[in-house]
Design brief:
With about 90 residues, the protein is mostly helical. Helices cover about 70% and strands about 0% of the residues.
């Protein structure tokens, strides 16, 4: 293989990945706007219970609890603090 062929293959792969990334970002923005409309116009709140259920059932296996909390602007401590069955000190 000549170096030019490798370079073109790398460039093509880069363009493909760039296109996929742009598509994923657009999809994320779309869902963020849908959630914002649901929250603002209809007063519906995504509760920690629903959030925890999605994480515990591993509906999105590639996302860790820490990363998911960061995406929603929550602390992981807040999620674990309100976990059903967890004892709190008095």
């Amino acid at each position: 293989m000549c170096p030019k062929t490798l370079s073109q293959t790398s460039e093509q792969r880069f363009k493909e990945l760039d296109t996929q990334l742009k598509g994923a970002n657009e999809k994320a923005q779309l869902f963020e706007m849908i959630v914002a409309v649901i929250r603002d116009d209809f007063g519906i709140v995504i509760s920690k219970k629903v959030f925890r259920q999605v994480l515990e059932e591993k509906k999105v296996p590639a996302i860790s609890i820490t990363k998911a909390c960061r995406y929603l602007g929550w602390s992981r401590q807040l999620l674990s603090k309100n976990k059903p069955g967890s004892s709190t000190r008095r």
